[in-house]
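Hello,

Our lab assistant flagged a job as stuck in the queue for most of the afternoon. It eventually completed. Since we weren't sure the result was trustworthy after the delay, we are filing this so someone can double-check. Below is the sequence as submitted and the structure that was eventually returned. Let us know if re-running is recommended.
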Amino acid sequence: MAKRKKEDSGAAGGSWIDTFADLMNLLLCFFVLLFSMSSVDADKFEALVQSLEHSFSILPAGGASVGDGQMVSAGISHLMLLDEYYKPEANSPSLENAGQEKEQEEVKDEKDSEEELKEEYLEAALEESEEMAEDIEKTLAEKMIADYVDLDVNAQYVLLTLNGALLFDSGESQIREDALPLVNKLALLLESYDSNLIDIEGHTDNVPIHNARFESNDVLSAYRAIAVKDYILGNSSLEAGKIHATGCGEYNPIADNATPEGRARNRRVEIKIYNSYNSN
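-- returned structure --
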């Protein structure tokens, strides 16, 4: 009697395990695909990883999370720094901050531009004043009055200073007779600057004055400035609208009023010839 062959008991059982493994691989690929196309919540993703790890042991031995290894399924590598994607607002400036920074940069650029223009303006004005001063210095030397006039310059004007004792007697506002030739020569010099603003200022020391004509140093200094202005207008072709007279009293000293020499320097008349940048 022929013997029956024994049936292979393991063949039928092994086929469903292969099918189950394929199904799990497909599910894993499906989850990875969903992950790659969606915005991932960090907490939910971690819970999913832990669930898959304990259920199917899909992570390498010893791995605690996907961050410790790589996902190879579908050729997609897991990024080590997922928080860059979870919290993009923490790693890049907001639109509001970017707008504020741009506005601040624009304001800074505008201020820098204004400062540059201001510096260029002052340099050009000072250069013109210095050229005027050179010409005036030559004219003073030619007219032989350079010893009676102090010359100074800045970015606004050229300053001519005359000692008050040369022009006026003490407590008086009428120009001395022997000072008239000096003022005549100055009037001719000023004709060369008929388009410039000219300011004549009278100054005194701090010794109080009070008489029938002048109740204070302010009044005396104003009368002296007006006397020089009127004489220059009467002996030149200058227009009255271009010359101003100002009384400054004792309030702008250039020397110490405690000494006779200092008081003598403070009793003065100043003629300011403004450059074209400051004559409007």
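-- support follow-up --
The delay was a queue issue, not a problem with the job. The result is valid. The mean pLDDT is 82. The longest helix spans residues 95-142.
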